[in-house]
Amino acid sequence: MRILLTGGTGYIGSHTAVELLKLGYDVELMDNLFNSKITVLDDIEKITGVRPAFHKIDLLDKVGMDELFKNGRYDLVIHFAGLKAVGESVKKPLKYYENNVGGTINLLESMKKYGVKKIIFSSSATVYGEQGVAGLTEEMQTGVGITNPYGETKHIIEEILKDVAEAEPEFEATILRYFNPVGAHESGLLGEDPNDIPNNLMPIIMKVAIGEISELSVYGNDYDTVDGTGMRDYIHVVDLAMGHVAAIDHMKPGVSVYNLGTGRATSVLEMVAAFEKESGKKLPYKIAERRPGDLAIIYANPAKALNELGWETKLTIEDAMRDTINYLDKKFKTRA
Question: Which residues of the chain have pLDDT under 50?
Fold first, then answer.
């Protein structure tokens, strides 16, 4: 099976590429390198012994996309590519709608033109909006109370995939709703290294650890949680990658939706403590005001993925911290 990964040199794409290559899949990566680095190909090769074919193409480049699919003969697309900074999406909504939604439409048009009928889409728990419910299930309503354009683009793309499946009976789409990816590859060669300003907790912790940011801002310590700070479902990126591998063998006509999460929530201060324990260093932080729209606790109910895909998480927060520290040590010599 030949698989194209859009956004393939990104954080989740690169880890998924590694797991697919280890299993013998024929993998090609496409990325515009806006928020990733070409050196990721070297790291993938070091880990797997295979250097996947790479195509530097933007989803908005219709001619380039057409040429890619004309020559590619792909059986499946795993679609990671997209802008993902929540704060930036609020300031630049048109950029996000054009890139994420418009780019996906270009992708689907190329797939249709060249007979590629299978896609796995990288979605997000943001599509559930502000439901205020902890154990989110796939049957819950989506698209209501989404607080930012980034989340809206994910919801719109999900709806587009449903419409395409309705119009084309042979079309197979699997939607994977991520919660909060953390960690790195155990080799220390691959990890999260965004070019843009990070919005999520773990990349900020990493930048504090290497001295790029002076301290972590903890937004609110008066929630009704174990320590007053917000709690989220943090999933090791390798577990997340394996969720995509599991989905491949269970695709079917129409649209299937799965949460990829641990089913457990960890607080911000618990994450800080876990990082400090693994690194042996104190992580400076300050308590800041709550951010509008933030909920106290959000986590997945991953039962459907277990029952239908046979997938469940195997790695812990402690594993994620160990692997992150290993990655930082190799990349930035944090223990030197």
Answer: 335-336
Domain count, the chain: 1
- Candidates 176, 168, 40; CA nearest to 115 is 168
Distances (CA, A) of 28 to 53, 54, 65, 149, 215: 5, 6, 14, 29, 39
Return d(Cα 12, Cα 199) in angstroms, integer: 16
Q: Name the nearest CA neighbour of 204 among 271, 291, 267, 280.
A: 271
- Which CATH number characterizes residue 177's domain? 3.40.50.720
Which residue range(s) make up the domain with 94?
A: 2-182+234-261
- Of 193, 202, 195, which Cα lies nearest the Cα of 35? 195
Q: Which residues pair with 255 in a beta bridge?
A: 173
Eight-state DSSP code of residue 246: H
In a domain, 75, yes or no: yes
Using CA of residue 101, residue 102, residue 107, residue 110, what is the dihedral sign?
positive
- For the chain, what is the largest distance between any 2 Cα atoms, rounded to a whole number of angstroms? 58
Reduced to 3 states (helix: H, G, I; strand: E, B; else coil), residue 168 is coil
Whether 64 maps to a domain, the answer reads yes
Residue 303 lies in a domain: no
The rounded distance, in Å, linking the Cα atoms of 177 and 123 is 5
Which pLDDT tens digit goes with each residue over 257-273?
Answer: 999 999 999 999 999 99
Give the integer Cα–Cα distance in Å for 49 and 138.
37
pLDDT tens per residue across span 37-62 = 999 999 999 999 999 999 999 999 99
From 324, 295, 304, select the one nearest 219 (Cα to Cα).
295
List active site positions: 150
The token duo for 250 is 């269970």
Which among 299, 241, 302, 230 has a CA at the least distance from the CA of 271? 230
* pTM exceeding the 0.90 threshold for the entire prediction: yes
Question: What CA dihedral angle connects 71, 42, 6 and 237, to 10 degrees?
Answer: 150
Contacts of 214 (CB under 8 A, 6+ apart): 208, 284
Q: Is 252 contained in some domain? A: yes
